[in-house]
Amino acid sequence: MEAKMSMVKLVALLLILASCFQSLSARDLEMEVNDGLNVLELLDVSQSICPGVTKEKWPELLGTPAKFAQQIIQKENPKLTNVVTVLNGGPVTEDLRCNRVRLFVNLLDFVVQTPQVG
C-alpha cells in the first residue's frame, strides 16, 4: 500500500514538473531558427567589404551571356566601372578592388560562376 502511495506521489510530481516547462512545437523551433538566420543576414550586410557598393553578388546571372550580365551589373551599381570577362580557369590577380567584377565565362561567353565584387 505504501509503495502505491509513493508511486502516485511520484506521478503527481512528474505531472506538476511537466506542466512547468513550455513545450516546443515545430513552429516554435522554426521561429527560433529563422530569428537566428535573420541575425546572421543582418551581420552579413553590415560587414560589407566595399562601402558604398549596394550589391556585391549576382547569382541570378549564372548562365546568361556575358554582355547581358555586364549591362545588368553596371545598371544596378554604376560605381562598378571595371566589369571584365575572364575565361573560366584563366589566371587572375588576388587583389581586391571595389570597382571590379569579374565575369568568369565558358568558350561560348556564358557566365559560369557567380559574379561578385572583387
From TrEMBL:
Transmembrane segments: none annotated. GO terms for biological process: response to wounding. It holds the Pfam family potato_inhibit. Keywords: Protease inhibitor, Serine protease inhibitor, Signal. One of its GO terms (molecular function) is serine-type endopeptidase inhibitor activity. Residues 1-26 form the signal peptide. The keyword Signal applies. Belongs to the protease inhibitor I13 (potato type I serine protease inhibitor) family. This is Ethylene-responsive proteinase inhibitor 1. The lineage of its organism: Eukaryota, Viridiplantae, Streptophyta, Embryophyta, Tracheophyta.
